[in-house]
Design a protein that fits this description.
By secondary structure, the protein is of the alpha/beta class. The protein contains 11 helices and 8 strands. The chain has helices spanning 3-12, 21-32, 54-63, 79-89, 111-130, 149-170, 187-197, 217-224, 238-244, 261-270, 287-301; strands spanning 40-44, 68-73, 95-98, 135-138, 173-177, 202-207, 228-233, 277-280. An 8-stranded parallel barrel has the order 1-2-3-4-5-6-7-8, surrounded by 6 helices.
């Protein structure tokens, strides 16, 4: 659920902070009434490959039909310049991606490493608030030869719980993303993980393309349901994966891979998704490339 609905629900529902995100969102949906799902288009800032000023980059993507842009955080740009470019272009900054959760994961066995990541995510929560957004994307943990699955699960839970006071202080959301981190690789487990945290400001940043390696996004969407706070959009080809390698699967344009977009977007509609944004996380380029991405996203949004 999104921050706006959380604020509304806490005013209407006594004890809302102790209710599962799915239950809370369902209550809000009943109060507000279900309508057609609408999503604005966004893209990752790094996808803009033209040599332009920050303001002109924002104006370019606005002219190409995008409503927002997603920055990495803690941001290494001058925040006042970002806000000025936002005001001059009319672009929105709904979310940021924490940039330290891979090299300093919340699941690391070393408490000092976890502490550094918690500090970084706390700064990202403040960054997105300052930028007028509401969501920080966070990878919840990483499993590898040195970090076993159960250890990562428990340590990541503890780390995210430590972040809850920062989320409450800022009013910003922590959205956990499904990536190729060998962790939370089934929708039922991903649902359980969020429900164990049991806080309306912690949910899921669902990446549609990432799941194609080992599942079907429409199934994940239905299971995660109101726990989904934001959506990333990618394409993926299982044929390319099988013939050329795992990462080659991403080397197809939106609409040209194996995502069943009518079915995926129907699932988004059926859960009455209220996150408000569909953000592209694909290879970028100049204005011609970005225009093509925008138009392909329009076709996908047409299935809502």
């Amino acid at each position: 659920m999104n921050r706006k609905n959380f604020i509304k629900s806490t005013a209407l529902l006594a004890g809302a902070a102790t209710i599962l995100p799915s239950t809370l969102s369902a209550s809000v949906s009943q109060i507000e009434g279900a309508g057609k799902v609408t999503l604005k288009k966004s893209l990752g800032f790094g996808m803009i490959k033209e040599e332009l000023s920050l303001t002109d980059k924002f104006k370019l993507i606005k002219d190409l039909g995008f409503d927002g842009v997603e920055l990495n955080s803690p941001i290494d740009l001058d925040k006042s310049e970002v806000l000025e470019a936002k005001a001059k272009s009319g672009i929105e900054l709904p979310s940021v991606v924490n940039k330290d959760h891979w090299k300093k994961p919340l699941s690391d066995p070393n408490p000092e490493v976890r502490k550094q990541c918690i500090k970084s995510v706390a700064q990202s929560l403040q960054d997105v608030k300052d930028l007028g957004g509401d969501t920080v994307l966070v990878v919840p943990g990483v499993v590898n030869e040195e970090v076993d699955y159960e250890q990562a699960y428990n340590t990541a839970l503890d780390s995210i719980r430590e972040l809850i006071p920062y989320a409450e202080k800022t009013g910003m959301q922590i959205a956990l993303e499904n990536v190729w981190n060998n962790f939370l690789i089934s929708p039922v487990e991903a649902k359980r993980f969020v429900d164990e945290i049991n806080h309306p400001l912690v949910g899921w940043y669902f990446d549609i393309g990432n799941i194609m390696r080992y599942g079907w996004p429409e199934q994940w969407i239905k299971t995660l349901n109101s726990r989904i706070m934001k959506l990333h959009i990618k394409e993926y080809s299982r044929e390319m994966m099988n013939t050329k390698g795992l990462w080659e699967g991403f080397k197809v344009n939106l609409l040209d891979g194996d995502n069943n977009w009518p079915v995926v977007m129907k699932a988004v509609s059926e859960i009455n998704h209220q996150g408000g944004w569909l953000t592209a996380e694909v290879s970028g380029g100049d204005r011609t490339r970005l225009k093509d991405i925008s138009e392909r996203m329009d076709k996908i949004l047409g299935y809502l």
